[in-house]
Amino acid sequence: MCSTNFSFKTASIFFICIICLSGCSVKNNQAVNATGDYSAPEKKILAAVLPLHNLSGTPVPLEDIRQRLISSFKNQGLDILPEDVLEKFIVKHRIRYVGGIDGLTAQDFRFETGADAVLVSSVELYNDTSPPKIALTCRLVSTGNDPKVLWIDSVALAGDDSVGILQLSLIEDPRELLEKAVLQISTSFGEYLADKSSSVANQRDIIKFWPKVFYRSPILEPEWKYTVAVLPFLNLSDRRYAGEILALNFVEQMIPQKNFSVIEPGMVRQVFLQQRIIMEDGISFADVHVLFSKLNVDLILAGKVFDYQDYQGTSGTAKVDFSAVAVERQSGDVVWACQSHNTGDYGVFFFDWGKIHTAHRIASEMVASALETLAE
Amino acid sequence: MIRVINFANLKKLVVFSLILFFFGCTPGSSLTYYHDPNMDFAAIRSVAIMPFENLTREPNAAERVRDVFANSLLSTGAVYVIPLGEVARGIARAGILNPAVPSMEEIGKFAGIIRVDAVITGTVTEYGEVRSGNASANIISMNVQMIEVQALRIVWTASATKGGISIWDRLLGAGGKPMNEVTMKAVTDVLDKLFI
After folding, report:
1. Listed residue (A92, A95, A89) closest to A110, CA to CA
2. Exposed / middle / buried, residue A303 (Cβ in 10 Å: 0-12, 13-18, 19+)
3. Chain A residues closer than 8 Å to B68 by CB
4. Which residues of A touch B63 (CB under 8 A)?
5. Predicted-complex ipTM score
6. CATH classification of A27-193 is 3.40.50.10610, yes or no?
7. A36 pLDDT tier (thresholds 50, 70, 90)
8. Were both Cys, which of A214, A229, B1, B192 would link to A263 (CB 3.0–4.6 Å)?
9. B72 CB near a chain A CB, below 8 Å?
């Protein structure tokens, strides 16, 4: 009888352990200070919040998200350009592309509206099917003669990222998830304004996301700071705008690194339009020479996306597969190339422990690991 | 009369049968190649990889395999691989109608424009999932050839098949290895035969 009780107790403890472990299944390395409270910011920036750029390929409540972003960024200490002034400016200059700003528009913004910066936001994923999923990228670009990316960050969340014990932490309401995403990204901006580094250091699984193949030329100097233009990737996947999303991911991961100074993607796009460059099968040397001279950069980074796959509901696997190359200005040669692919459930064996639910987060990890090989 | 069973012979028979059984169920994996013994491969410093011919039902199979092949070859550090966009420009300028299977004349013209020492062409004959009963697995079958542009002759060819349904896939119902992994293996095997 005694032994039966003991077995029962052991089994109960084991069962509780399993429940607890599954509840803590997914690490969320993007977690930041949830309150988002910071002391008075050291800088005051007047920013124009552009309409959201929809890269999700699906219908998205863009205005709702934009208003939430405005409200949240205001709370962090960002001065927002009045709506009527922005609208007049957009109408006057016939601005239709809101995924970035070119040099001329940046100058006009500064001298006509007085805005110091422009907040460019992209929605990369919006899925309101339970559990919902969302991915947002925001960047602050300075206006004036030489537009620069001052700050960039992204957030990708799924309702079942961390379900908790008995699924008590499962988020089923897309608005709740959106609120969480907006808070995270605005908190990150608050940290930038307060000149604070991220409260939680990103713990990347370098080995898991390491590129499958890579090449790095010895002519790359680890100590140098390279100015880089990231071109939109050639999209061979089924997902619309996957090329732009991955290019944006590279920009985001390169900006914080001391080895790179990245050109605003809107300026790269402008040169493409002005020079009528169409990349049919990747970059050619003729295109590269034009881009080097027009953008005055040291490196040009381009690539191809073969898979960029998110999934709906609870069952499925996010998947990313891409290759990238970098061409150097002086030698005119390919100095870096990599090939990387991964899935959200790679290395996951029990209770979805460690599963990544969005392609955006997989891509972020993969890009960060790939850049380790470039900046080493 | 009492018949005595020879257990030693029985054991041998069982072991032999098992070996035959396991070998019969191994997944498709083969590699054949040709390496020109008179060719100095160290003289080849730059190569252009032409678009691979796609004989599969997967629309992007050839492009995927070509990309993996190009990056893997570049990562060896032995040769410089011309960017695929530059290859596309060269094809357009040389006016090659079917770049997957160019004629020697077209290759000569193309190499003059792009300035490469060798041109690699290839074919993907199988790419994707194969099924047998309840079992399924990923498989790839590819072949490549290198043409030296000075003499316009084939100096290296290799073909590889990787993946397929293994005994474990049949017994346990596993879906085989991911397509990317199978592709990497096939490409690595092919390249190993270039640098022998």
Report:
1. A89
2. buried
3. 213, 323, 339
4. 236, 304, 306
5. 0.80
6. yes
7. very low
8. A229
9. yes
